Amino acid sequence: MAEPWATLGIDLHVEPAGPGLRRGLTDALREAVRSGRLAPDTRLPSSRTLAADLGIARNTVADAYADLVAEGWLTARQGSGTRVAAREVVPPSGTAPPPRAPPRPAYDLRPGSPDLASFPRTAWLKAARRALTAAPHHALDYGDPRGRPELRVALAGYLSRARGVRTGPERIVVCAGFAHGLKLLGTALRARGARTVAVESYGLDVHWRILAASGLDTAPLPFDRLGTDPGALSEADALLLTPAHQFPMGVPLHRDRRTAVVDWARRTGGLVLEDDYDGEFRYDRQPVGALQGLDPDRVVHLGTASKSLAPGLRLAWMVLPPRLAEEVAAAKGGVDTCGVLDQLTLAEFLTSGAYDRHLRATRLRYRRRRDALVAAVTARAPQARITGIAAGLHVLLRLPPGTEQSVVQAANWRGLALHGLARYTHPAAPAEPVDALVVGYGTPPDHAWSGALDALSAVLPG
Q1: Which pLDDT score is estimated for 94?
Q2: Helix 449-459 to helix 404-413 angle, to the nearest 10 degrees?
Q3: How far apart are CA 297 and CA 319, in angstroms?
Q4: Where is this region: Disordered (predicted)?
């Protein structure tokens, strides 16, 4: 394939009929290199081609090239043509240098992401080909803001079978990740007149910020060994909850409290937002059914492919009461939609059984990692107490009082990305601070897992 000329589309600011043409062309080319518009090793057109493009004499271009070669801006070699020399780009005066990206950690034990190396590329590509081949032409249009019907039908079947969700496709709205769905819900709740959303004392601050940006206050509820305590719900209009596997504490909501939450919603007309962020991953206990199954008209079920497949897909879903589904779809609008091809591919992935096969394989992988993590901490860091191990992709490591910050700092010095529990504690949480680490074991690839365990063990109190 012929190599394209980089100067095409670059304005050299040369006036062909003006005086000092050679100097003007030389200055223009020099500035293009200096500013970075012509990158190092870029091949320039031949003198004949550039002369014809600019409408000037070939000798003028050849002389300008020769001047810039002599100055070190360009290089000329037989058979390679004229190229931009390798040199540091100098930003214009008064321009701050671009910020340097922070170095990537050697090991990453932050929660929130799966092992991206385990993404089923081959199976996903096959599903994409089948889905695209079968899709009608109109499927590639803007379509229904609730999402492609193929995916909503597939999700309705899967969620009913695997999570005990009571739904049909008409109740499902597809969104671009959990945060997108929560933003849409916040908008709809505020439009209904809601003022306050009760939240758990421990969770993700990005979720609290999304609700605040929608004009909603967040009020944290107490937390104990039975999970979040719904006793203080009386003043809230809605509740955001992770009942199957509390994030980040790792405990399921006790059955009596599950019942109490639904009773509150029925009694007051409140709405429960059920974040089922890692419902597929259970190891030592039976799966905890979706809270939505207790009352589909008072509980919104939110799920995502970010943990089971990859966060970069930006695919999530909400199962909503019928009227709220219409309001959320209206808030989403006709253009705020997700990629059609990925929706069709996930639908095919679900209906073909590929999703179930992928989950079986990843459950085994993550269970082995969890077992190795528990064994390493037990053997090398007896002062740390590990909890929340029965499900999910993270554990909680309780530390001796007053040690969390120093452990996180020591990990950072060793190139280990690690988060403490303080990062996930609501500023107004009604509880004494707890020193702990939230250790995610999903992110590192298999080949780095033993090294990550060694790095973690090295910074934990002995």
Answers
A1: 63
A2: 130
A3: 10
A4: 81-112
Cross-strand partners of 397? 386, 437
b (16+ CB within 10 A) / e for 111-140: bbbbbeebbbeeebebbbeebeeebeeebe
3-state secondary structure at position 194: coil
CA proximity to 437, closest of 378, 387, 382, 375? 387
> What pTM was computed for the model?
0.81
Characterize the bridge pairing of strands 107-108 and 416-417. parallel
- In angstroms, the CA 366 to CA 439 distance is 13
Q: Does residue 411 contact residue 420 with C-beta atoms inside 8 Å?
A: no
Residue with tokens 């499927």: 139
Per-residue pLDDT of 328-349, as tens digits, reads 999 888 666 789 999 999 999 9
- Cα dihedral: 102, 104, 109, 110 (round 10): 40
Instruction: Say how many CA atoms lie within 13 Å of 363 toward its Cβ.
Output: 16
How far is the CA of 269 from the CAs of 113, 140, 236, 272, 275, in angstroms?
A: 35, 39, 10, 10, 19
Distance CA 107, CA 440 (A): 11
Residue type, 402: G
Q: Residue 385 carries which side chain, given as an amino acid letter?
A: R
Domains, the chain, in order of start with CATH, read: 21-84 (1.10.10.10), 107-112+360-459 (3.90.1150.10), 119-356 (3.40.640.10)
Place of tokens 């007053």: 402
Neighbours of 426 (CB within 10 A): 19
